[in-house]
Amino acid sequence: MSLFSRSKKVRAFSNKGHQKTVAKTRRGIYCINEFMNIRRAHFIGIGGVGMSATAKLLKDSGVIVSGSDEDVYSPVLDFLSEHEIPWTTSYAAENIPADIDLIVIGKNAKLVPETNEEVATAYSLGVKVMSFPEVLGELSRDKETIVVVGSYGKSTVTALLAHCMERENADHSFFIGAIPYTPSTSAKTGTGKFFVLEGDEYPSSNTDPRSKFLLMHPSHLLVTPLAHDHFNVFPTPEDYLKPFAELVTLLPENGVVAVCTEGALSGAFINACRTPVKRVVTYGLSKGDFRAANIEWGETTSFDITYKGEIIVCVETTQLGEHSIQNIVGAAAIFFTIDITDPKKFAESISSFKGLRRRLDKKSDRTSVLIFEGFGSSYEKAKSAIAAMRRHFPERRLIVVFEPHTFGWRNRASLLSYDDVFRDAEIVMLLKPQEHGRGNQEEASFDEIAERIKRHTKNTFAHETGEECLAALDENMRSDDCVLLLSSGPMAGLARLIPELAERKFPK
Q1: How far apart are CA 360 and CA 389, in angstroms?
Q2: Domain Mur ligase N-terminal catalytic spans what residues (predicted)?
Q3: β-strand partners of 299
Q4: Residue 101: which of 171, 194, 35 has the closest Cα?
Q5: pLDDT digit string (tens) for 29-38?
């Protein structure tokens, strides 16, 4: 039988060592008996996208949830409101409900008992305290899991998998570390056997240095491109790859590893993870078992997905950039190998996929200026977003509004990244992040970052506030410009203010 012929035989799957009794909760969702004795859970730091999504999973399962955070901004703010998850602004001991069974504490640097009274109270109560990846591990323990990991692209690939499963009317579970347009939510607890999870190599909590994905129970892995990231946690490329290598050892004997060939560290990982008991398939734009061919770029881009040179299916997508095609090929690699869907249904699902918020989503249709927001949390993500703008809008002047929000961007070891990351931009508007400057010896100053960018990008303007940046755009923006917003932080509200400015100045 061809790898791509949909089998009618029901596949038997057993994750040895993890068989537990399941019971139906009052909302009709199947969960682990032992864990779901929990009636009420409180999330400290609920404003994180992973924390809020995990809170929804527990609420889906019949648990009463609440939370607190110092500040929550969109799109998580909208997510909490939409799913009626209550939360309190600022941290205080009295935020914790009296009859609490579980407290989930986020990774934010402010969430430590020495300086946060709510966290200190949580540890003093004698109730169960967990990180959100520990909760995900419990919720997914008895499922056949597909864990998506990698340096970039994993949120989009996870959303692609979840969207395709929903289009097949299958009631599977999923957790996405971002807010998607499709599917309609970032997390869902379902009755189906599959659970798609976005995994992360970053430490699980302020008290647990293990990578988040090591707390999950992978049945299969999809590994997006790998490149050295999080220098403050993983000083060397070898340090960075260690948790990924450990993750592979957690797979059952019949587990599938679908891995991209095209990251700087992907080759080293592929060589290390090939073992007799695990099936490894590779994918990429132009290298791997699964590839893209005959690409026709446009507002809707079409291309063929091939397997070892054989055309399997032609798909169409409105997603921008080469990295988006790479993501779609990765989704095909895992789906077709495990035999979850057939090529025709896969193509139908891809054509209706609308992507994620803050992943090159267009901010306005009411101005002649093209404005997109990308997730600029790392060098590779910023480079791929800028390359997508150049690929699709080569005739337009590109203005990049950039906030170095993550510690990775502000680490002194990352200064070299600024030498070429903005090479294809005509103008860079650099915004000082709110949390910049904590006295860390390894942290570069805002002035150092600005100076480094200016060496290689002539038209670079550094701004202390959002107001300054908006005023500079008001003065410099043209009617036919393309503006790319890059940050993983709040950007002083510029994602809303810049489109409003463009709509006033250059209405469509």
Answers
A1: 9
A2: 41-143
A3: none
A4: 35
A5: 334 435 668 9
Single-letter amino acid code for the residue at 195: F
Starting at the edge strand that comes first in sequence, how are the strands of the sheet with 64-69 ordered?
87-89, 64-69, 40-44, 102-105, 128-130
Residues paired with 281 in a beta bridge:
258
What single-letter amino acid sits at 64? I
Which domains can be identified in the chain, with CATH numbers?
A: 22-131 (3.40.50.720), 143-351 (3.40.1190.10), 361-505 (3.90.190.20)
247 to 88, 103, 128, 213, 214: CA distances (angstroms): 36, 26, 26, 7, 6
Q: Is 120 exposed, middle or buried (0-12, 13-18, 19+ CB in 10 A)?
A: middle
Strand, coil or helix: 306: strand
Cβ(177)–Cβ(155) below 8 Å = yes
Strands 279-283 and 256-260: parallel
Residues in the chain, overall count: 508
Q: Where are the beta strands (DSSP E) in 132-253?
A: 144-149, 173-175, 187-188, 194-198, 220-223
Q: Is the dihedral of CA 374, 376, 377, 383 positive or negative?
A: positive
- What is the distance between the alpha carbons of residues 47 and 50, in angstroms, rounded to a whole number? 9
Query: pLDDT, tens digit, for every residue of 54-92?
Result: 999 999 989 999 999 998 888 899 999 999 999 999 999
- What local confidence, expressed as pLDDT, does residue 8 receive? 28
Helix/strand number for the chain, H first, E second: 14, 23
- DSSP state for residue 489 in the 8-state scheme: S
Residue 242: what residue type? K
**Amino acid identity, position 37:** N
d(CA 327, CA 320): 11
Checking if the pLDDT of 391 tops 60, the result is yes
Q: Which of 282, 279, 487, 457 is nearest to 372 (CA)?
A: 487
Both tokens of residue 182?
């499709």
Rounded Cα distance, 329 and 288, in Å: 10
Give the integer Cα–Cα distance in Å for 187 and 43.
16
The C-alpha atoms of residue 463 and residue 465 are separated, in whole angstroms, by 6
